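Re-run requested by the PI after the first attempt was lost when the workstation crashed. Everything re-entered from the original request form. Ligand of interest: beta-D-glucopyranose.
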Amino acid sequence: MQALGIDIGGSGIKGAPVDIKTGKLLAERIRIPTPNGAKPKAVALVVAEIAQAFNWKKEIGVGFPAPIKHGVALMAANVSEKWVGTNADELFTSITGCKCHVGNDADVAGMAEMAFGMGKGEHGTVIMITLGTGIGSAIFYNGHLLPNTEFGHMQINGKDAEHRASDAARQREDMSWKKYAKRLNEYLNEMEKLFWPDLFIIGGGISKQHEKFLPLLKLQSRVVPAQFQNEAGIVGAALFSQGTAVKF
Ligand code: BGC
């Protein structure tokens, strides 16, 4: 069974058809820069462009950087304010002509890792953290997701964690890997004190360079890079479109 998975990020919108039984991409992904301001209609047109590029007519799963309930975006941190209250399921479905299912980007990325990647077979508490324009969180207990956690907005030293420890913050402040690892450690340490996870899975584009910063972390929990690296969002979005639950 196949579904098109689309991952909407602060800087790029990526998509590819995915075999939802294996989690494998069935074609090379397409990436289109996120339109300036990331307003609903402009973003929806890019989703449609990706669907058309694959001549897609079936279900589409979309990971979106906001808490989403029944298809509706509830908040907007790194996208236009116009998203708040927008039914993204309906908007994308009407523009693409395909049935679209939208979920939080970190939640769906976590689903991919739990089903096929580093979380496969992991019981206990697993926390997926995605580091990109913002920080996304997905928390699983015995494979079950607690949806729409927003721990990128946890306050550290009076600031949103994502303003200090996202990959965008690292680039903006031109941090050395050592300095960045310190910032990330501070954040993960707070998460650790609150949840006592068995495993942290670190995703987002930066996870490709995990050797530069993960070995510098000092935490009690195990920490691993996401197996799908930056593609977890695409694979997870495809799974989400089928309502595929995490399987052990
Ligand atoms: C958003 C989250 C999202 C994360 C990663 C945050 O700013 O509030 O919903 O998961 O960025 O994209």
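Saved to the shared folder this time. DSSP finds eight helices and 15 strands in the chain.
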